[in-house]
């Protein structure tokens, strides 16, 4: 527990001695951090110690309590003042209260109980003032992260009042899970609920304050202010201890997702917070790569991004050639190779560039083929976020999407009415459709459509619809989020019993058996 600092000012030595021994100050939450019998030195002592409370005699040679109150207020010092007075000095007391004094104590009535009662009354005022100053500093720091400039404003007075001058700072970013956010595909970061205000000393005895400054897109950021240290090794140990404990607290509050924490090297200049914040956010992306630890230290570094940009440029050219040549197998091979490079070099910049490029190409390809939009498929839970964890998960996810787009969905390979039928099925598979209803939509007879479809695809139209629906059902079952009748309804079957029968006939497993098998495979 932090003890509130007290400065005692009295021109009588015995009066100071009496106060010092009157109570057990630490037990009351206070410590006498300075004292003087020389009133003219009072302000200098107060500015040096920066106490939370001043206890001063109201009437002293060359400086009375009223003048002291005026000097403290003029100096911008945030502290409470208790005046010591005798019976005949009440007029002085009334005047001093107008100028910032918090209260008074009558010397001849000063007993331990009276002093303790006064201290208990003033303690909430001290803590409220400190919280006000912390809030003011926090708002300025949030502004720095958002790109605002302090201009001519100085943080000095606030830092002095909060006793943070000279403290060593560490910036920490925390995120839940290692899902790579792909907004183009409807993927977002895992939500990370915040924690109640954290007692700094719960993290480490070296931590003075914790300032929560950032909470966006599933990530939180904060500054830890440490006591100054002359030993880099001890400071590094305190950093790791505090960040590890902070991560543990978040993990305890969010047991469903693994929690990752990245932190900065020690720094002392508060104005550099925006740069440190950006660098720590980048470092947190190391959680996307295999082998990453839950606590990511400043020494954890990935690729620089320059080599990634060059490689990505070459990869784009090769991908475009493969796409123009309509060579799906080469596309899949290029995706695998390039993601493996990003994973090996732990280059988050390269990974993000690859994902943006792949998502854009997929979007354009599907639009050209009049296929269902990726965002619509995401809304139908066909993108399970659990399958997009880290660089490896993203690679597998894109490979699945590219197979679906360039291989499995073969509408573009067919002509005329067959292609139109396949495109319609991809949009209306979850409704009651039949050969005749599709034929009517296309303006031809059912028999003619059956003949064309069988001739070009090698399977009947109803067989194609069934297989298509079963593939959609598999994806829904793998999420584990839906009841059987919900899956059936989402893929166009109004009877869950009939759906189960068709699913078993197609896959050899009942729907629930399939879901349990995939769940076991995921655990392994």
Can you walk through the features of this model?
Residues 5-122 form the Response regulatory domain. It comes from Paenibacillus rhizolycopersici. Residues 419-517 form the HTH araC/xylS-type domain. This is Response regulator. The modification 4-aspartylphosphate is found at residue 57. The longest helix has 34 residues, at 112-145. The model has no long low-confidence stretch (mean pLDDT 83). Strand 3 (53-57), helix 4 and strand 4 (80-85) form a beta-alpha-beta unit. A five-stranded parallel sheet has the order 2-1-3-4-5, with helices on both faces. The protein has helices spanning 13-22, 25-28, 42-49, 65-74, 90-98, 112-145, 156-161, 200-203, 232-253, 273-284, 306-324, 328-345, 348-368, 374-379, 390-408, 416-428, 435-442, 446-457, 461-479, 484-490, 496-507, 511-523, and strands spanning 4-9, 30-36, 53-57, 80-85, 103-106, 168-176, 207-216, 219-226, 259-263, 295-296. It is built from 22 helices and ten strands. With 524 residues, it is of the alpha/beta class.
Key words describing this protein structure:
524 residues; 55% helix; 5-stranded mixed β-sheet; 5-stranded parallel β-sheet; 22 helices
């Amino acid at each position: 527990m932090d003890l509130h600092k007290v400065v005692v000012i009295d021109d009588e030595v015995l009066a100071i001695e009496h106060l010092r021994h009157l109570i057990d100050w630490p037990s009351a939450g206070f410590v006498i951090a300075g004292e003087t019998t020389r009133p003219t030195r009072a302000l200098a002592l107060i500015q040096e110690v920066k106490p939370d409370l001043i206890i001063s005699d109201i009437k002293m040679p060359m400086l009375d309590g009223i003048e002291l109150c005026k000097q403290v207020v003029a100096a911008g010092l945030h502290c409470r003042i208790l005046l010591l007075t005798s019976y005949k000095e009440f007029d002085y007391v009334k005047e001093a209260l107008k100028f910032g004094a918090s209260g008074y104590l009558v010397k001849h009535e000063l007993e331990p109980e009276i002093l303790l009662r006064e201290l208990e009354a003033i303690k909430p005022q001290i803590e409220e003032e400190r919280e006000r100053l912390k809030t003011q500093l926090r708002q300025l720091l949030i502004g720095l992260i958002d790109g605002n400039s302090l201009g001519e404003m100085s943080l000095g007075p606030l830092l002095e009042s909060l006793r943070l001058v000279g403290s060593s700072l560490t910036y920490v970013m925390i995120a839940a899970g290692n899902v790579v956010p792909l907004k183009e595909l409807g993927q977002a970061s895992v939500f990370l609920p915040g924690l109640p205000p954290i007692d700094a000393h719960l993290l480490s005895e070296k931590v003075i304050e914790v300032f929560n400054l950032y909470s966006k897109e599933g990530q939180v950021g904060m500054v830890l202010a440490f006591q100054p240290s002359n030993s880099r090794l001890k400071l590094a140990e305190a950093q790791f201890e505090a960040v590890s404990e902070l991560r543990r607290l978040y993990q305890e509050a969010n047991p469903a997702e693994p929690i990752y924490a990245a932190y900065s090297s020690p720094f002392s200049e508060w104005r550099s917070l925006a740069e440190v914040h950006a660098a720590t956010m980048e470092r947190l992306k190391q959680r996307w790569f295999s082998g990453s630890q839950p606590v990511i230290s400043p020494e954890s570094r990935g690729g620089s991004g320059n080599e990634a940009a060059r490689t990505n440029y070459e990869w784009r050219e090769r991908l475009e050639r493969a796409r123009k040549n309509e060579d799906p197998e080469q596309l899949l091979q290029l995706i695998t190779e390039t993601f493996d490079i990003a994973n090996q070099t732990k280059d988050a910049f390269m990974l993000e560039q690859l994902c943006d490029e792949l998502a854009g190409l997929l979007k354009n390809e599907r639009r050209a083929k009049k296929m269902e939009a990726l965002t619509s498929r995401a809304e139908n839970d066909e993108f399970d976020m659990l399958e997009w964890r880290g660089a490896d998960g993203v690679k597998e996810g894109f490979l699945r999407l590219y197979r679906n787009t360039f291989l499995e969905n073969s509408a573009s390979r067919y002509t005329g009415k067959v292609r139109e039928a396949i495109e319609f099925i991809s949009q209306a598979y979850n409704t009651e459709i039949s050969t005749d209803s599709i034929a009517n939509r296309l303006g031809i007879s059912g028999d003619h459509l059956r003949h064309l479809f069988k001739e070009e695809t090698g399977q009947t139209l109803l067989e194609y619809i069934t297989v298509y629906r079963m593939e959609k059902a598999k994806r829904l079952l793998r999420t584990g989020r839906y009841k059987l009748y919900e899956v059936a309804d989402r893929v166009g079957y109004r009877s869950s019993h009939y759906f189960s029968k068709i699913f078993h006939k197609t896959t050899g497993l009942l729907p629930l058996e399939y879901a349990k098998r995939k769940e076991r495979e995921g655990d392994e």
